[in-house]
Structure formats: structure tokens, C-alpha cells
């Protein structure tokens, strides 16, 4: 191949078409092969309003691609004899408790890392919450489990927040400090940071965007208080920095001039399947070319057209990421976007792999668009059914003003309902939902940052006074009931 020859011919046109179809404002990608950076490219805009271009140095939030940094940190501590994958978490964090007390006593770091604690997502607990990571761990005792410990995989960000606190308890330093000292610095990841403020200070940070009624709109950077998310999804990086991470994974723990950071065996444990992972991306597990998804420790493991693939996606307000490598083929890719929809990044990844592996191209864009439309239709039908049933529900006539007040749940924290001339607003954490009345006691909750509508049902005491509100924040368990505060 000559210096001017494109190592991935035709990819640019494919990427631009995918960005157009999925309304992606900006995208960066990088590909590694045989220990070298094969290509790194930027497309579109880092900031639509200011028309700033995306470059390979542009930083994005990588969301849950952060999780593999956390499990690598845990693996380092295991290798040093400070932690064991299969000892109870409570041996290291005596305050650790779950709603299921028996499970809480038995949960191990391995269980946290492969999403098999029996506790479902409960994401509204941490999302836009002004609480510390330690407080989030304390709240686990009040969050109902949906299945037994180790019954099956259930993705859970709160358990990765707990894993970060575990790193801190065992190492004696903040999770951020440990990851920077033992991973980022020796790998030369100089444009990788742990908050929007730091990423902004480094310069060239892509602005997050949402697709709202067919239009791309910029949204604010997540607030600094969100650093409680930390070990679950708070790293910001450029694709060039992430090539160091991919090469480190492909090299089995070698970091170039910095030498070996972790043994191949210890790092390989994070790449080893632990549990079948049936969700959270049904649009990508519907095709024969994509194998049964398994989950390791911070990595998703499956085959792509017969090739072993180790990957993880990430999405956080206004951003999406995909990090992936084929260990037996010695190649990998990272795709970062400033729109939080997994589809475009995943489709670009498959387009890259088809070219790297010399396979006949599959029109993944058409396939995923069709599959996504079907899933969207199903979700809309479910929301319509919920809307209809709640509208038809009877109950006494209650003035909107009677709903106003402060409510509390020990796991989900406070909730405030406000009533004014424009109607009801329901505020949970920093998220203020618009509430539309459906029935006598039911409202529909919507917010631009929340993809699906939520529904709330106000509760009355024996005297007919509003004394609580029930919201199915976590669909796999009974409604979360917030009790009214009378102070």
C-alpha cells in the first residue's frame, strides 16, 4: 500500500451516509492493526452552532466504555493480592448492603463487574443526582432486586459505581487517581479526563447534542456533580488516546515503552465470558452474523461473522461511543459521536470490520434502520397502551394543587411536585418533568433527556388526602413509592 492509498477504501462515503441517516452531527474514528494506528479520522461538527470540525484529537464522553478501565483497575489489585474476584464485597466495604440481605452478604467483585447481582438498573437513582458515590452505594440497601443473585445478567451502572468505591477502599486513593496513575499516564493518554470541566480545559471537546423532533440541538455539558457516575461512565477521551487503550488490550497488558502494566493472565480474566448477556441492545442481536452476546468483566464478548470480538458501547447525555477489538485478528476500532444513539457507532464499526477482514459488505445501515423502526413501533404501542389504561382509571376528583408537595424514597431520594397556572412539574434529582394529567390520579411525565415517557400515580390515604406518588422508574420491580413529607 502506498502512502496515499486509503487503507479502508470507500469508508468515508459510508460514514457520511450513516451520519446523514442517523442525524449525527460529529463523529471520530480510529483503527488499529498489528500494534499500529492504521487510520484516525474526524467527520462533521464538534459544535453544530459554531461549525467547529471534529478531528482525531477531539474529545468526547465515552460513557460505559469507562467500565473496562474500572475492571482493569480491579484486575491490577487482584494481581497485587489486595483483592480477590470471588470474596464478598463486604470483606472490603463493610457498609455494603443490598435490599436482599442474603445476596448482599454474598456479592463478590466478579458479580458487580458482570452484572449478575440480581439488582436491575434503577438508573434514575444516580442520573443527574447531586449525591456522592458513597451515598449511592448506601442507597443500594433500599433498591428492590428483581431476581436472585447470579440468576442472570442485568446491566447495572450502580454496581460499577460500587466497583469504583471498592477500588478506592482497597487502594487508598480516589478511583480517578488510580486510573490516571496506573493506566492513563503509562499509556500516554494525555487528552483523557474525568469531567467536562477538565475536558474543556484541555480544549477541543465535542459539544453534546440531542435529536429533538427531527432537529439536532446542542445540550448543556453534564454538571460536575455527576462525577458520582465515575467508574461506570465518566471518562472523556479522543479517538487517538483510545488507540493506546486498544493496543494495550490487544497486547495483553503491554504498554509500549512503559512496559507491562498487568500480566496477560490477569488482564485476560476481564476478557473471559462470565454470563450470557441478552440485553440491552436487542437491535444488534437479531442477526445470524452476530453471535450470542456474553459478558466478561467490563467487556461484551461475541462473534462477528465468525471472528471473536470483545467490545463495549457507551452512551451518556449527547454522546455515544463504541470500543472494540478482534483479539485473534490483531485489529480494533473506536468510534465516538456527539449524539447519544448507539446505532450509528455500531453500524460504522461493522463497516470497518467488513473492510479489515476482507468480507463482502453488509448493508447494516438498512438492517438496523428497519429493526430500530420495529422496536420504536413496539415502544410507542406500549406507551399508548399505558396512556390509555391510566386515562381510563377512575378515582376521586382531586385538584392539581393537592398533588403539590415534597415526597421521598430512601433509595431514590427526594421528589418535588409543583403546581402553577401552566400545570404540574415533577422534579426528581435535577430533572424537571412536564406532567400531563391522564386520569383522576395519573400523570404522564416527559423530558427531552428521557427517551420514553414515564407515568406517575398519586396515592390517597384513608381520608382522601394525597400521601404518596408511585412511579415505575424501574420496570422490572413494583412501582417506586415516594411518601409525602408533611414538614
Total strands: 21
Alpha-carbon distance between the termini? 74 Å
Instruction: Tell me roughly what share of residues is in helical segments.
Output: 25-40%
Low-confidence sequence ranges: none
Rg, Å, rounded = 23 Å
Number of helices: 14
Features:
487 residues; 14 helices; single chain; 2 domains; 21 strands
Short description:
The protein is 31% helix and 25% strand. It has 487 residues and is of the alpha+beta class.
How would you explain this protein's 3D organization?
The protein is α+β, with helices and mostly antiparallel strands and 487 residues long. The protein folds into two domains: 11-84 and 103-361, Beta-lactamase (3-Layer(aba) Sandwich); 395-484, Lipocalin. The chain is 31% helix and 25% strand. It contains 14 helices and 21 strands. The protein has helices at 11-22, 67-79, 101-106, 109-113, 133-139, 157-171, 175-187, 196-202, 230-233, 239-250, 264-270, 342-356, 364-392, 400-403; strands at 26-33, 36-47, 52-53, 59-61, 209-212, 215-218, 236-238, 275-276, 294-295, 300-304, 307-316, 319-326, 331-337, 405-409, 413-420, 423-428, 431-437, 442-447, 450-460, 466-471, 480-484. Strand 1 and strand 2 (36-47) form a beta hairpin.
How would you summarize the topology of this molecule?
Layout: H1 11-22, E1 26-33, E2 36-47, E3 52-53, E4 59-61, H2 67-79, H3 101-106, H4 109-113, H5 133-139, H6 157-171, H7 175-187, H8 196-202, E5 209-212, E6 215-218, H9 230-233, E7 236-238, H10 239-250, H11 264-270, E8 275-276, E9 294-295, E10 300-304, E11 307-316, E12 319-326, E13 331-337, H12 342-356, H13 364-392, H14 400-403, E14 405-409, E15 413-420, E16 423-428, E17 431-437, E18 442-447, E19 450-460, E20 466-471, E21 480-484
Antiparallel strand pairs: 1-2, 1-13, 2-3, 4-7, 5-6, 8-9, 9-10, 10-11, 11-12, 12-13, 14-15, 14-21, 15-16, 16-17, 17-18, 18-19, 19-20, 20-21
Amino acid at each position: 500500500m502506498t502512502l496515499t492509498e486509503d487503507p479502508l477504501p470507500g469508508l468515508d462515503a459510508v460514514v457520511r451516509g450513516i451520519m446523514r441517516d442517523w442525524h449525527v452531527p460529529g463523529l471520530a474514528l480510529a483503527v488499529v492493526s498489528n500494534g499500529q494506528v492504521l487510520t484516525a479520522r474526524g467527520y462533521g461538527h464538534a459544535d453544530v452552532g459554531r461549525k467547529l470540525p471534529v478531528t482525531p484529537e477531539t474529545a468526547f464522553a465515552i460513557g460505559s466504555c469507562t467500565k473496562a478501565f474500572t475492571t482493569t483497575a480491579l484486575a491490577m489489585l487482584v494481581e497485587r493480592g489486595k483483592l480477590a474476584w470471588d470474596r464478598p464485597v463486604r470483606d472490603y466495604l463493610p457498609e455494603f448492603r443490598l435490599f436482599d440481605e442474603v445476596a448482599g452478604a454474598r456479592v463478590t467483585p466478579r458479580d458487580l463487574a458482570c452484572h449478575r447481582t440480581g439488582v436491575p438498573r434503577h438508573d434514575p437513582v444516580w442520573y443527574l443526582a447531586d449525591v456522592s458515590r458513597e451515598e449511592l452505594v448506601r442507597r443500594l440497601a433500599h433498591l428492590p432486586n428483581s431476581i436472585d443473585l447470579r440468576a442472570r445478567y442485568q446491566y447495572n451502572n450502580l454496581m460499577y459505581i460500587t466497583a469504583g468505591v471498592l477500588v478506592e477502599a482497597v487502594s487508598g486513593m480516589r478511583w480517578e487517581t488510580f486510573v490516571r496513575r496506573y493506566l492513563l499516564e503509562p499509556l500516554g493518554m494525555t487528552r483523557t479526563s474525568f469531567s467536562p470541566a477538565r475536558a474543556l480545559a484541555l480544549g477541543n471537546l465535542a459539544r453534546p447534542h440531542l435529536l429533538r423532533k427531527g432537529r439536532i440541538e446542542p445540550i448543556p455539558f453534564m454538571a460536575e456533580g455527576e462525577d458520582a457516575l465515575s467508574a461506570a461512565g465518566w471518562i472523556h477521551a479522543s479517538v487517538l488516546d483510545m488507540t493506546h487503550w486498544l493496543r494495550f488490550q490487544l497486547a495483553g497488558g503491554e504498554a509500549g515503552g512503559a512496559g507491562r502494566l498487568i500480566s496477560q493472565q490477569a488482564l485476560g480474566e476481564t476478557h473471559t465470558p462470565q454470563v450470557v448477556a441478552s440485553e440491552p441492545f436487542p437491535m444488534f442481536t437479531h442477526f445470524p452474523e452476530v453471535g450470542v452476546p456474553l459478558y466478561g468483566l467490563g467487556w461484551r464478548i461475541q462473534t462477528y461473522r465468525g471472528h471473536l470480538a470483545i467490545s463495549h458501547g457507551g452512551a451518556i447525555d449527547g454522546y455515544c461511543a463504541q470500543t472494540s477489538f478482534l483479539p485473534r485478528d490483531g485489529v480494533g476500532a473506536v468510534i465516538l459521536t456527539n449524539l447519544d444513539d448507539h446505532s450509528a457507532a455500531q453500524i460504522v464499526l461493522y463497516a470497518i470490520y467488513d473492510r479489515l477482514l476482507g468480507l463482502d459488505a453488509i448493508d447494516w445501515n438498512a438492517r438496523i434502520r428497519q429493526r430500530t423502526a420495529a422496536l420504536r413501533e413496539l415502544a410507542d404501542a406500549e406507551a399508548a397502551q399505558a396512556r390509555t389504561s391510566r386515562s381510563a382509571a377512575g378515582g376521586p376528583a382531586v385538584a392539581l394543587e393537592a398533588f403539590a408537595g415534597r415526597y421521598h424514597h430512601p433509595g431514590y431520594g427526594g421528589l418535588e411536585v409543583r403546581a402553577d397556572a401552566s400545570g404540574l412539574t415533577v422534579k426528581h434529582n435535577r430533572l424537571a418533568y412536564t406532567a400531563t394529567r391522564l386520569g383522576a390520579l395519573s400523570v404522564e411525565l416527559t423530558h427531552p433527556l428521557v427517551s420514553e415517557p414515564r407515568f406517575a400515580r398519586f396515592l390517597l390515604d384513608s381520608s382522601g388526602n394525597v400521601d404518596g406518588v408511585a412511579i415505575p422508574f424501574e420496570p422490572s420491580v413494583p412501582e417506586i413509592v415516594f411518601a409525602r413529607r408533611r414538614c
